[in-house]
Design goal:
The structure holds three protein chains of three kinds. Chain B is mainly alpha-helical. Chain B has helices spanning 16-33, 36-61, 69-87, 91-113, 118-138, 140-143, 169-191, 194-204, 206-211, 216-242, 252-265, 270-286, 291-307, 314-323, and strands at residues 156-159, 162-165. Chain B starts with 15 loop residues before the first helix and ends in a 5-residue tail after the last helix. Chain C has one domain: P-loop containing nucleotide triphosphate hydrolases (Rossmann fold, 3-Layer(aba) Sandwich). The chains are: A mainly alpha, B mainly alpha, C alpha/beta.
Chain lengths: 290, 328, 256
């Protein structure tokens, strides 16, 4: 019983790590743009497809296809960032919702159009089991947790030490002041967007060996999972997002085991609505940005 | 119908009456002019016009962006289907019941949701769709889960000994047209009334609206409910037309589509929304475009609407209208 | 100036965190009076207005309008049931609507009295709307906005929008109007017109006023009584000349 519980919690941490890597990008984009990116899950999907193409068509090894998936997504994000996201600076929140909904439709359906709508088998990754503290789990799952930790440490270092990181933090705190002190807001927005999209892609390619199946509509589900996380985490708050993702991951894993698998995908939104009714601004303060 | 009145009436003939009559004649004779597939496309667009009218009251007139419309559309469809299948109630009872249930359900959902600010409100309304779909999928004893409900009877009217079943496409077209016309009349009545004026005031400046004595909270609540009722009625017609409902009636993409109809047609105008549903639903259905291509086109439409046509595509049509000598 | 004051505020306080924006202020506006409210920036005038008009809820204190306690009422209820209206510092109109519609909306003032009235059905509610339109046109003419009456309010100049806002507040036959810096940011030529409008409303329509204004000439010409706020407290009260000569007031302005 207790063993099963701890196994479920570890599984939850893996899922939470997947969500955290996606959600952190989304919350940082919200920070600089004050807009929710409804297309964020699509970059997760694009990354996965990039890696799948590299493996399936070019027979490349998994680590290389991870890099290809992430880089391809980052390039697409750069184009989208230049054409669309940078125009959104200073527009009302509703405009952001609509524009990113439009992007989600375009990205998702273009992939379905090109590769077909069916499920594809993802043949790669490290699926040998390892045993850690008496709990056995696939190497890939351990890898996800480790990379999630690295990503968050890396982001923390970036926003405190690098120029661009400091600029991101500045823009998310006060966009008007940045324009005055000569920070190019639009460049920072595009950079943050590309970083966020690349992280989503990374999360996608890391998860693909665990989920095994790849399909064009997979991004939408991820978007719906991360939306509650970033709101509960306090929009724009990186640490809050990390904890909210872990909480949701564990909650989903427990609900799937003890309540029923079919209820797993509703946990996020159900919790979100309860939380919003109780605390309209999320569990973690939106003030304490990265 | 346009909100922005210009300073001086533009010179030109008043083409409204002849144009309206021509339109009515066209609508009445559509079954003669169109093939059965094109007529089906028009029926679908008339059905989607109902939730779009409701959404227009919310987005176009009151200024609240909502993604919940598909949830209430689904509720309406399921209420109708369940009543028809389990109790055998007729269409003319299911239709108002669907509207009433959807409208009533909107109240407890709107009270917490309307307390949220812009983005969180949108998110919360999206949550309604997702949770609605989950209920439709998992409350198997009632909804039969993913199998959905089938064999919903076609609308049947019985007055005394005389009875009539709406079976063919042509007959259903006139039924859908009648419902859509009635809904349009109701919307027109609302938006031209003192209440409609107050809704626009809320959209323009909520605090100022408060300060001139408009109880904005109650207004927003009521408009949200009315808008849900419209979606519910739409769902009911949809269920009786297709004779099947499934959890896919609760689809995020339906909400997006309804938004595109309203924003593309011209938020805050009635004619724009009618045009929008014919254009974005009817035309794409009639042309049998592959669903993916249609979605991609919708995506580009959304981007174009946000960045280049914030008032929808109607200004283009108005320009054409003045070019042929009409007066808006 | 007999009987109950039209507005009677006692011990009004409001804090934001540790900052006491308004700290136990008493203030009365007498029937038919134009009362001025001045003070250096950050003295709590705006917070005081927001608390008395129902925009924000005060922490403590009572607000009585015409003898009726209205503390804690919402902004819209005070406007509708109390007929006390307020303006905002930033020029605000319903931008997409034309001038006449702006005034008609301000005159409607009902919740949902009946389905007929809400949707404008029936001869009586149509007559009511027609009456409002007539009144709106009259006020538009008086305010000198006749030429632009069919233009969207948002297209007009800041000064014209102030005039629209002022005319809107006269639509529902108010008892009392709170004006928040009516002269801020408008063309000096229009100042005289706004002053005239206030006088007209006071003399002809019997409206009482409480006015926040930085332009001291306007205050001197309009008000017979002035209240001074400083750091959330009432510093002085008296005729304009008493206030101008008051040592503490001078220090507050210079030291502030």
């Amino acid at each position: 019983m207790l063993f099963q519980l701890s196994e479920q919690i570890v599984n939850g941490l893996v899922t939470g790590s997947v969500y955290a890597i996606v959600a952190v990008g989304m919350t940082m984009i919200f920070g600089v743009l004050r807009a929710i990116n409804f297309a964020h899950g699509e970059y997760y999907m694009l990354g996965t497809f990039g890696a799948w193409v590299a493996i399936e068509y070019f027979d490349l090894p998994y680590p290389l296809s991870v890099a290809i998936g992430v880089i391809a997504t980052a390039l697409i994000a750069m184009v989208v960032g230049q054409l669309v996201m940078r125009r959104m600076v200073g527009m009302p929140a509703e405009a952001g919702v609509l524009a990113t909904l439009g992007l989600a439709l375009i990205l998702q359906n273009t992939v379905i159009l090109v590769f077909g709508g069916g499920y594809k088998f993802f043949n790669g990754g490290y699926i040998e089991p390892v045993t850690v503290f008496g709990i056995s789990l696939a190497e890939q799952r351990l890898l996800i947790i480790v990379i999630c930790a690295l990503v968050f440490v890396g982001l923390e270092l970036m926003v405190t030490h690098s120029r661009i990181g400091k600029a991101m933090r500045a823009v998310s705190q006060n966009i008007e002041c940045c324009a005055v002190v000569g920070i190019e807001v639009r460049k920072v927005v595009v950079a943050t967007f590309v970083l966020g999209a690349a992280l989503a892609a990374l999360s996608g390619v890391l998860t693909a060996p665990v989920n095994v199946s790849v399909y064009g509509g997979m991004g939408e589900l991820i978007t719906f999972k991360t939306l509650p996380i970033i709101i509960m985490g306090g929009l724009g708050n990186v640490r809050g997002t990390f904890f909210a993702a872990m909480i949701l991951g564990i909650a989903e894993s427990l609900v799937a085991t003890y309540v029923g698998l079919q209820f797993r995908d509703t946990v996020g939104f159900a919790t979100l609505m309860l939380v919003l009714m109780w605390r309209p601004h999320g569990l973690f303060s939106a003030q304490a940005r990265y | 119908m346009s909100l922005q009145e210009t300073s001086l009436p533009a010179p030109g003939r008043d083409l409204r009456l002849p144009f309206g009559l021509a339109l009515a004649a066209l609508a009445a004779s559509a079954p003669l002019l169109l093939g059965s597939y094109a007529l089906h496309a028009v029926i679908i667009s008339l059905i989607f016009l109902l939730p779009a009218h409701g959404l227009n009251l919310l987005v176009g007139y009151t200024g609240l962006l909502s993604l919940a419309q598909a949830a209430f559309f689904g509720v309406g469809a399921y209420v109708s289907a369940l009543m028809a299948v389990h109790w055998g109630t007729p269409f003319y009872l299911n239709l108002p019941a669907a509207g009433l249930v959807a409208g009533a359900l909107a109240l407890p959902l709107a009270i917490p949701a309307l307390r949220l600010r812009a983005t969180s409100f949108v998110m919360c309304t999206l949550g309604f769709v997702i949770i609605g779909q989950a209920i439709a999928k998992n409350w198997i004893s009632v909804t039969r889960g993913d199998m959905g409900l089938s064999a919903i009877p076609k609308p049947h009217f019985a007055i005394g000994p005389a009875s009539f079943t709406v079976n063919g496409t042509t007959e259903f077209y006139y039924l859908a047209l009648a419902v859509a016309a009635l809904a349009t009349a109701i919307v027109w009545m609302i938006v031209t009334s003192p209440a409609g004026r107050n809704m626009v005031a809320i959209r323009e400046n909520e605090t100022l609206a408060e300060s001139v004595g408009i109880p904005t909270w109650h207004y927003k609540l009521l408009v949200f409910m009315v808008s849900a009722a419209f979606a519910g009625v739409g769902g009911s017609v949809y269920a009786h037309y297709l004779t099947v409902v499934s959890p896919l009636t609760f689809q995020m993409s339906y909400s997006t589509l309804m938004l595109i109809i309203v924003l593309g047609g011209g938020p805050g105008t009635i004619s724009g929304v009618i045009l929008g549903s014919l254009l974005f639903v009817g035309l794409s259905e009639a042309l049998r475009i592959a669903p993916e291509l249609r979605m991609i086109a919708y995506g580009f439409c959304l981007l174009a609407l946000v960045f280049w046509f914030p008032k929808g595509f109607t200004p283009l049509i108005e320009r054409f209208w003045t070019a042929i000598g009409g007066r808006s | 100036m007999t009987g109950l004051p039209i507005l009677d505020i006692a011990g009004l306080s409001k804090s934001y965190g540790a900052v006491k924006a308004v700290n136990g202020v008493d203030l009365q506006v007498h029937r038919g009076e134009i009362c001025g409210l001045i003070g250096p920036n950050g003295s709590g005038k705006s917070t005081f207005f927001d608390c008395s008009s129902g925009l924000t809820r005060p922490n403590s204190g009572t607000v009585k309008l015409d003898g009726q306690e209205i503390t804690g009422w919402s902004l819209n209820r005070i406007a509708r049931e109390g007929r006390m209206l307020r303006s905002f510092q930033k020029t605000v109109t319903f931008g997409a609507l034309n001038v006449e519609e702006n005034l008609v909306i301000a005159g409607q003032m009902f919740t949902f009295p009946s389905i007929a009235a809400t949707f404008g059905i029936g001869a009586r509610s149509r007559a009511r709307i027609d009456g409002l339109r007539e009144r709106a046109r009259e006020l538009i003419r008086i305010s000198g906005l006749w030429e632009v009456r069919n233009q969207p309010a948002g297209n007009l100049s800041g000064g014209q929008q102030k005039l629209i806002q002022f005319a809107s507040m006269l639509m529902p036959e108010p008892k009392l109007i709170l004006l928040d810096e009516p002269m801020a940011g408008i063309n000096p030529k229009l100042i005289e017109r706004v002053v005239d409008s206030v006088r007209y409303a006071n003399d002809q329509l019997g409206v009482s006023f409480l006015i926040i204004e930085h332009n001291i000439d306007v205050i001197i010409s309009l008000c017979r009584r002035v209240v001074v706020l400083d750091q959330g407290r009432k510093l002085a009260e008296g005729t304009p000349s008493e206030i101008v000569d008051n040592q503490a007031v001078r220090e507050a302005y210079l030291g502030g």
